[in-house]
Each structure stands twice: as C-alpha cells, then as structure tokens.
Specification:
With about 190 residues, this protein is an alpha+beta fold. It is built from four helices and nine strands; from the N terminus they run βαβββαβββααββ. It has a single domain, classed as Pyruvoyl-Dependent Histidine Decarboxylase, subunit B (Pyruvoyl-Dependent Histidine Decarboxylase, Chain B, 3-Layer(bba) Sandwich). The strands form two sheets. It has a five-stranded mixed β-sheet. α3 packs across α4. The chain is flat and about 50 Å long. The protein starts with a strand and ends in a 9-residue tail after the last strand.
Length: about 190
C-alpha cells in the first residue's frame, strides 16, 4: 500500500484528564474517528499534498489511518507547548520526500514550524548529496535548497497553545495524514 495523497491537520484540546485532552485535540484536527497508526517520515514519490478539507473527505470512521504525528501536552498553567510536522518534497518525480515531527516547549508556531520544516529539508538534502553548512540559518539554507532545483517545496503545519490557567491538561497535535489510493475491492 503506497499513499497517493497526504494532508496536514492540527488541533488543540483541554480537559482535566490528559487522555481526554488528546482526544479533544484529535477532534479539533478532525481525525478522532480513525484508528491512527504512527509511521516514520517518507513521502512516497508522486504523493500529492491536498487541502485539509479534501483530505478529511477521503478518510472514514474506523479506518486504519497512517499518520506522521507530533503531540505535546502540559498541565502547567501558561506553559507554551507546540507540535509541528514539516515536509520537504523533491523535484524528481521518482524521488521520495521527507516528513518530520517536532514537539517543543516555549516555541511559537513560527519557530516550531521553521524547525520542523528545516528538519525535513535537511534529511532530504543529505540523501541527495546537497552540500551545506548545518550551522547556517534556516532561511539561507531554504534558499540554497530551492536554488539547487532538487527540493521544490517545503511546508509545515504547527499547533501551539498555552497551558490552561487552571491547570487543565492542554494537548497539541499536528499531523500529516497519509491517504492510500481508492481500492475498488473495498466499500468507501
């Protein structure tokens, strides 16, 4: 089974129970009705990034659904948590891309998102033999990666939230949901 599509989604949930706050974050992300299976970081060749709206229409309640998911939680009032998934897509139609997950404390959406995007791009760049200085700022490396013509797209989805002021569990999730091609042998 090779996914044909993937989409990004994210959510946040708050509850007195940590598990319930995770469930609420999944509801906010729209993927609570699936049996989620966490997978590693490869975007198959030709796998198309679609909108969240289109992607949610492609999944069904009870379905085993493969995801690259970042998850973080806190019950400390006002503590900033973030979950982010980044992607790097190569220009070659027969090459695979990378997804990366990042979970952090104290980072804004922008900072956590840039970090996850950088992770994915760096993993892809090293497999393609692109030479770069890892100490160079992400903005500079992003330009380098794109000017080589080998990496055509980088992106991320990030959810951050401040811990509930009354100490409820606050959970963030960010996910890349992998969707297989329609199978004519199963009812959809």
């Amino acid at each position: 089974m090779i996914p044909k599509y993937f989409f990004f989604t994210k959510g946040v949930g708050k509850h007195k129970e940590q598990l319930q706050s995770f469930e609420l974050a999944l509801r906010d992300a729209g993927i609570q009705m699936c049996n989620l299976v966490s997978v590693s970081s490869i975007v198959p060749p030709g796998c198309e990034l679609v909108t969240r709206e289109k992607g949610l229409k492609m999944i069904h309640p009870g379905e085993i659904t493969f995801v690259v998911i970042a998850r973080n939680a806190t019950n400390e009032p006002h503590r900033l948590v973030a979950s982010s998934v980044g992607v790097a897509i190569p220009s070659g139609k027969n090459q695979y891309g990378y997804l990366s997950e990042h979970h952090s404390y104290g980072q804004t959406d922008e900072t956590a998102g840039d970090y996850a995007e950088d992770l994915a791009a760096t993993m892809l760049a090293t497999t393609m033999g692109i030479q770069f200085d890892p100490e160079t700022a992400w903005d500079e490396r992003k330009q380098l990666f794109k000017t080589t013509g080998l990496i055509i797209k980088t992106a991320n989805t990030t959810q951050s939230a401040a811990g509930d002021k009354n100490g409820l569990w606050t959970t963030t999730v960010a996910a890349a949901v992998l969707v297989p091609p329609e199978d004519n042998t199963t009812e959809r």
